[in-house]
Amino acid sequence: MRFRAWRDLSAEYRQAVTGYTPWPPGALDAQVVMAPDVRLDESLDGFQEFLAREGIRSLAFIPLSSDAGVFGMPVLHYEHTHGCRESDLPVARAIASHVARPSNTSGANWLWRQSEQLSQAMSTTGRP
């Protein structure tokens, strides 16, 4: 996994976490993964220094999937601990479904625009 768009994340952080994904390669039924407090999530132990420097206390990983499995993910970064409400999950899944739909060159441009819009919406509301 590589960054395609970001807001207020240092180059050092982006380099450190590039390639990380909470799902195994080719996962077909990936679900949203929340880390309500990154300091308590053992899967993120190798990134604690970078997360602390960025002021990140909570993360949400939203899988982008195709028939071949997960191919990307928007990641929501929160500066405070944050639990995902059950009512948030359908919204996250709907966004991921629409973003994952394109599969051709024009679709890649559409995906880029959608990720920019999602990033702007998240920075305004802190939620997808």
**Would you identify the CATH H-level superfamily?**
GAF domain
Number of domains: 1
Major pleated sheet: 3 strands, antiparallel
Query: Could you list the spans in which at least 5 consecutive residues all have pLDDT below 50?
Result: none
Shape: globular
Mean pLDDT: 81
Total count of strands: 5
CATH topology: Beta-Lactamase
Secondary-structure element string = HEHEEEEHH
Radius of gyration: 14 Å
The helix tally amounts to 4
The amount of helix comes to: 25-40%
Strand content of the residues, in percent? 5-15%
Biggest sheet, spatial arrangement of strands: 1-2-5
The CATH architecture term is: 2-Layer Sandwich
Structural topology:
Layout (H helix, E strand, L loop, with lengths): L10 H7 L15 E3 L12 H7 L3 E4 L2 E3 L2 E4 L2 E4 L9 H13 L4 H21 L3
Antiparallel strand pairs: 1-2, 2-5, 3-4
Q: Can you walk through the features of this model?
A:
By secondary structure, the chain is of the alpha+beta class. The chain has one domain (11-125): GAF domain (Beta-Lactamase). The chain has four helices and five strands; from the N terminus they run H-E-H-E-E-E-E-H-H. The chain has helices at 11-17, 48-54, 88-100, 105-125; strands at residues 33-35, 58-61, 64-66, 69-72, 75-78. It has a three-stranded antiparallel beta sheet with strand order 1-2-5, with no helix packed on it. A two-stranded antiparallel ribbon has the order 3-4. A hairpin with a 2-residue loop joins strand 3 and strand 4. The radius of gyration is 14 Å and the shape is globular. The mean pLDDT is 81.
